[in-house]
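Before the break, one more example. Copy the sequence into your notebook; we will annotate it together after we see the structure.
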Amino acid sequence: MHEIRIYYEDTDAEGVVYYANYLRYFERARTEYLEERGLDIKGLLDNGILFIVARVEIDYKSPAKLYDTIQVETTISEVSKASFWLDYIIKRKQDGKIIVTGRTRMACINRDHKLIRLPRDIAGKLT
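Here is what the structure looks like once it is written out:
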């Protein structure tokens, strides 16, 4: 689980987290989650294996506000030949209230931005 404290820069004029910032929170949590599963993101990049966001789904349930601490739970829900889905639940740490749910479909591409099959060792770490 990834924790994020909400600062002024994350919010709009009313002290509510700006809606697009949740995509940044997904990105941070996704990176940490994949690294915890043994995937070296920089090493993959150096070897020409990249993950790109091919699709995003997001549902806003309740606002996060200035100085809240949020927790992002990340799980893998589907793995196919060249992509995988990550699911996210963002909760306010203080009361456990669900703020946002969402998911991203990550596609595996090479340096030429062509879709490629997930290498077997990577697929094994995702399942």
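The mean pLDDT is 95. The two ends are 18 Å apart (CA to CA). Try to locate both features in your own notes.
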